[in-house]
Design goal:
Largest sheet: none
Number of strands: 0
Order of helices and strands: HHHHHHHHHH
Structural class: mainly alpha
Strand content: under 5%
Radius of gyration: 21 Å
Distance between the termini: 61 Å
Low-confidence stretches: 260-272, 278-282
Helix content: over 70%
Length: 282
């Protein structure tokens, strides 16, 4: 048995372990938030944009995570064909970017609301997300053309261009976090910065920035080391981004559900955030 076959057999065992581990994490997170999901997602009025976004992040993620062990098993037998390798590369690029963009959309709506629906803020954030999507498409095309076919093509050495895409994703997160932090500082100076709604927005943005920063840095390290285990990062990214996006949505829905209470205590920021979220969802 050749050394390459032994090496890939070891990698496949690791990948299978990570597949089931990331799936278990996603199921645990789903069960953990099930009560909040029923209350703040399913019990709300029918026409909600965020509901469809939640379905994608939660249940589509569960579906594809349940399929990943079978996909790994298929490629582990050396049955990969050029068409299946092409399909996998396109799928991996598409799923990873859509999950990141879905989470960024929720954060972008919050930032847009914090700045009283400023068009300049909308254009700035929209430009960053658009640049990120374009970078993802370019990177996917390059990866498909540059990746050489072999029977175990599910594990490929990521191109260095993916490192630049990770930097763009990181810059988008820093922009969103920076805008949230800027508004927090301004509201504290005006006496409203310590309200629960502002604290919640800052906490959620900080948590998402940390998580996506770690994922981006890991991807950059894989690109620098020219490693073949970058696919493992996809499995965990789907689960972690799904968790982040779903909790952001449930927290946002909770703010909307408690909107009348916040308005009674009233601040201009609370009214702006809540009214914007309600308008966008309807």
């Amino acid at each position: 048995m050749s050394q390459d076959v032994i090496s890939y057999a070891f990698i496949f065992r690791q990948a299978t372990s990570h597949c089931y581990s990331s799936l278990a994490f996603l199921i645990y997170d789903w069960l953990l938030g099930l009560e909040s999901e029923v209350q703040h997602i399913w019990m709300q009025p029918q026409k909600r944009v965020f509901r469809w976004l939640y379905i994608y992040l939660r249940y589509f993620s569960l579906l594809i995570q349940a399929m990943h062990p079978g996909i790994v098993e298929y490629f582990s037998g050396g049955r990969g064909s050029p068409s299946s390798c092409l399909a996998w590369n396109i799928y991996a690029s598409l799923v990873g970017q859509v999950h990141v963009t879905a989470v960024e959309m929720v954060l972008a709506v919050r930032v847009y609301a914090l700045f009283n629906r400023s068009r300049r803020i909308a254009l700035l954030v929209g430009f960053h997300i658009l640049l990120e999507v374009i970078s993802s498409v370019v990177n996917a095309v390059y990866t498909v053309r540059a990746t050489k076919y072999h029977m175990y093509c599910i594990f490929f050495k990521p191109p260095h261009q993916l490192m630049y895409h990770s930097i763009i994703v990181l810059s988008t997160q820093i922009t969103l976090m920076g805008l949230t932090l800027l508004k927090t500082v301004l509201t504290r100076r005006s006496g409203w910065g310590r309200t629960p709604i502002v604290s919640l927005l800052l906490r959620d943005s900080s948590a998402v920035l940390f998580v996506i920063s770690v994922l981006c840095l890991l991807m950059i390290s894989f690109c620098r080391l020219n490693g073949e285990r970058a696919t493992v990062l996809l499995f965990w990214s789907v689960s972690i981004l799904s968790s982040c996006g779903c909790w952001l949505l449930m927290n946002t829905q909770q703010l909307v559900a408690h909107g009348p209470i916040c308005r009674v205590r009233s601040t201009s920021i609370q009214t702006s955030v809540l009214s914007t979220l309600i308008e966008i969802e309807q």
